[in-house]
Amino acid sequence: MNIRNPRSIIIISAYACLNVFIIVSAFRQNSDEVHGSKTPGTMAPEFTQVEDLDYYHLKEGVPQMSLAATIMRSQGETSAEFDEPNGIYHYLEKNKSMKYKAENGIYRKAKELLTLSGKVKIESEEADYLADKIKYYFKKDLVLGSGGVTFEGMDLKSKDQLEIHSDTMRANPNSQFSHFRGNVKGSMQRKKKYEGKMTFSSQQLKLEGLKSLAHLEGDVKLTRQNYLITAGNGDIHLENYNKSLKYFVFNDDVKVTEKLQTPEGVSYRKAFAERLEGFGQEQKMVLSGAPKVEHGADVVKGYRITIRENMDLIEVDDAMSDVQVKRKDDEKKKQK
User: Fold this and answer.
1) Among residues 177, 182, 172, which one has the least CA distance to residue 155?
2) Are residues 132 and 119 in the same domain?
3) N or C: less crowded end of the chain, CB within 10 Å?
């Protein structure tokens, strides 16, 4: 039987103990890491609350966004929540600004997104946007509104005053483009009050400020003076009212109802067509696409029919016109 050197046995034993110590320490460390990962929020930055503050977000050393609030709660450098925010955002490259206020707000710095809720109002040089909730992506120049949306603005070319209400809204204030959806209702007031006011409704409305154009889609209704126009869709060229150009164009199952005041009393004249073109300066409407006009028992058909506004006058163009007149006397004879 061979007996090893005692010194070798001591060295081997010490080496074995060291390995055991390393393994046990590593196991404990892993257990602590696993246990720590199961505790939520331990690594999250703490919230900081400040009352009655003025908040600034700098870009290139210039305050790009500033606001006042009664309370601010911030989570590190990621986001900040505000009570009663009231502030302004500066478009440095365009030398423009946008004001805003609401009951509550959250600003996410990485996305440059300001979410406002509760009696929200955003004001630009051209228009005001109001809603229950608005998301404003500063960098994208994008405003998303929902709940009780209201747009109040002025067309820069015609100077018409516009007011629009809808369920939702998607707008680009700097591009002067707005898209309204759901139960759209509103009005257009001419700069000169005597030139009248229009009210309208539709399922969608696209307002293009740079083109001075309003496009309506779905169940369109337009009331203008003593005229009610319904159609599938329509365009209103706001700057063409006092020009020899088309002021409005309606398509798809067009119907015009005109209220007339006669010596015998009030009567209604109705017109039907696939297309209607209105000329503001000339105060006339041109119907095409199997147009037909009914007034009482009289029916007029033609290739193209022109209605002179506020005049008991209808023009039926070209010799291809087919005019049919139904009178009460003729109907009585047929009944006999």
Assistant:
1) 177
2) no
3) N
Q: Judge if 292 and 189 occupy the same domain.
A: yes
| 232 within 8 A of 253, measured Cβ to Cβ | yes
HSE-up (13 A, CA, CB side) for residue 263: 0
- Condensed to tens digits (0 to 9), the pLDDT of residues 213-247 reads 999 999 999 998 889 999 999 999 998 888 888 89
Residue 104 dihedral angles phi and psi, to the nearest 5°: -140, 155
Residue with tokens 């409005």: 248
Verdict on whether the full-model pTM lies above 0.70: yes
Task: Tell me the C-alpha distance between 308 and 310, whole Å.
Answer: 6
Shared domain for 241 and 272, answered yes or no, is: yes
Q: Tens digit of pLDDT for each residue in 238-259?
A: 988 888 888 999 999 999 999 8
Q: Give the distance, in angstroms, between the CA of residue 315 and the centroid of all CA atoms in the same chain.
A: 40
Q: How far apart are CA 81 and CA 107, in angstroms?
A: 6
DSSP string, 249-307: EEEEEEEEEEEEEETTEEEEEEEEEEEEEEETTTTEEEEESS-EEEETTEEEE-SEEEE
The residue behind tokens 């199952």 is 253
Query: The tokens of 250 are what?
Result: 């309606």
Boundary residue ending a domain (94, 123, 152): 123
pLDDT tens digit sequence for 145-199: 999 999 999 888 888 899 999 999 999 988 889 999 999 999 999 888 777 789 9
